[in-house]
Amino acid sequence: MSRDTGRSGDTFPRQHARTQRLTLGEPRNFTLSPDGRRVIFARSSTGSDPVNALWSLDVLTGTESCVFDPRNGADVDGELTAEERRRRERAREGAGGIVSYACDSGVAIAATVLGGQLFLVDLIGGRAEAVAIEPGVFDARPSPDGSLVAYTRGGRLFVCTTSGAERELAGEDNPNVTWGLAEFIAAEEMGRHGGYWWSPDGRSIVAARVDVTNVNVWHIADPANPSVEAIEHRYPAAGSTNADVSLHLIDVTAGSITPVNLPTNEYINSVAWNSAGLIAQTQSRDQRSVSIVRIDSSTGACNVIATDTDDAWIELVPGVPALNPSGALVTCADRDVRRILIDGKPVTPDNLQVRSVLAVGDEVIFAANDVSTPWFHGVYALGAAGVRTIAAGDSVCTAAHGGGRTVVRESSLRAPRATFRVVDGPDLVNNAETMLVSPNVRITEVAGCSVAILTPTTISDSAPLPVLFDPYGGPHAQRVVATQMSFATSQWFADQGFVVVVADGRGTPGRGSAYERAVFGDLAQPVLDDQVAVLDELPVLEPRADLSRVAIRGWSFGGYLAALAVLRRPDKFHCAVAGAPVTDWALYDTHYTERYLGRPDTNADNYARTNIVGEAASLTRPLLLVHGLADDNVVAAHTLQFSSALLAAGCDHEVLPLSGVTHMTPQEVVAENLLLHQLAFIRRSLH
Hints:
Radius of gyration: 25 Å
Number of helices: 11
Number of strands: 44
CATH architecture of the domain at 453-686: 3-Layer(aba) Sandwich
Mean pLDDT: 95
């Protein structure tokens, strides 16, 4: 196993940026062959190499072999299609080379796209060839038997043979209509990145038709390059019109298209098609109800086979709904904790919060945590005899499963890097670099919150230390997990002479349904109150903490929370760094915002109580606002409108615009210096 610890003369900020947050070089995107003898995965050659190759592991011998290195004959630096750029942004993917691929049912061939060019990889023989079709391809997937490949180009859905004979299956001249692509909301908020699905026999495809004609037209400009035309972005802000999405069955041979008669719900959350049948889940606009339908693959007729309702919202769980081989329906639902249901009956214990379903076969493989220790995540199997443990302990485990085999990724506080292993089989090589910090972290529970406290590794005396809160704090993201990698940046700040506190309060996942739903109607005060409660208890936990010098920093929801803290509790928080903050929830998207706040026309009070632009005049503490000007998720208007309100109120503040930067900051020089800039601001603000 590689022990690369970086380059001579490296600093942590430089390493963290160069290695894309220490993720490069890790195995990823696993596919297991049906016989369980091979594991296909992507991985780059070193912890600073951003170009992934495709690899195969022989489980019986433990031998790894590279089946496609895109540097050999492919244009790894070629221009990405607009669809691919959007997909990578939605997935927060910063690597290059092979970042996605798809296999036939036998895992004998793989299809991948590089610079818009389709490549087919012989996974047995280890050969790869470009298919002689027009470039601009996106989301290529072989048919189950491997004889055809489906893909989109320019918003149209195509298939071709392995030799390149191409046919268009669906498409329209209207530029606002696409076939086979996921709409913005599905990819950004629902976890559905695909827009078409093969039938098990390879004779049909069910495809999404997306019409964005009535969706808001926003424009993402590059002020640093005024000669470049602004990009038109269809953004469904809270309360506005969503894309019109429908499903259609396509006969691949005949080319006929049959509409699917779905229930009249706002959202199509997921589609699943296996030998037991074709199903889809739809969700109401207020997200308080879902319907699961079985679709007749010949006629498009639908039969509702399950529904669920919730007074707040229905949580979408990756991997479900699905049909098991016998045709039973596997779902998840919040029943005090999130549990797996088989044909409507809860079958997992009431102490396990299910996080995702990884595979549905004779057993259901799932990830979950005990609600008493949400910072530990395990992998489990549910079968006829009940639940058994695959991998669990004082660590965080995730997995991929297929062919009766499971590949487990495990990370913990004991080691700086993750390990990858086939259960009852060999390990996989991890080429990631070892971080240049050593997290000195304690995880505990404070005021009902999960809390991590980090202190300097080089300062052992009892002198008071300033405090830095480093939260995300919002729904769907957990910062306090038992892995060293999760605290790399926090530890770097601690080593600069801070007590760093990371707190997961109400609204964050892992502690049961009521805990997550405590932010329903108010994304501000409960979240902030929990950070304050932790701060008030801090002197008992860390006597060196100097509560007269407290900073807070965060990105995205964490940026919102940081700004909120200095606005509402300047008695507790003395400066803040707010990166890409949502400042007015009416400017954020429908599916996320309306889940918690409802629609602005009927729940105006919820939007008013969470809008920090309206509180600008209360700022009395130093505040640094940071925003990528190319951000199409939390658009720069959030920061710019907030800054304007602060200026109008005569409130001093600083704004750092990041030209050409999206919601993530993949550019190495930007990411490195952004950490240093934040440190300098916090130091001079707390002086």
